[in-house]
Amino acid sequence: MDARLDYFTDPTAGKVLKYFMSAGKVLKGSALPTATQELVALRVSQINGCAACVDMHTKEAAAAGETPVRLNLVTVWREATVFTEAERAALALAEEGTRVADAAQGVGDEVWAHAAEHYDGEQLTALVMLVSFMNAVNRLNVITRQPAGTYEPGQFH
Prior knowledge:
By secondary structure, the chain is mostly helical. It has seven helices and no strands. The chain has one domain (11-143): AhpD-like (Up-down Bundle). It is globular.
């Protein structure tokens, strides 16, 4: 499959993505644990059907030491016993934050309170920004049909 747009050769995309991706770098350096960031990025990308991002975040998580069992169970995290309570809270917030069109309330108070039990203000901010960032990236990639399978860990760092 070929992408509809080549972000690396299009001048407008290059200008916009330079700044857009710098936000992603700030999030990578945030106080939110790396494992949580990758699990959230993966789950948001799964929900949105972003093959390129699923490819990227599965490989980045594995390169950072994430286990195949946990990566394979992200889609069914509620029934899996391999995630911490903090990770479960982050995944719940990520799902509700991604499915805002499906859930009239957006992120519910209970989900927010559960996340706030496990993350401080700086980490919660990073989590909210990450969910929003991933949703935007997913949409860019889904709209333009960016292909998956060739990503190498660290490729965009």
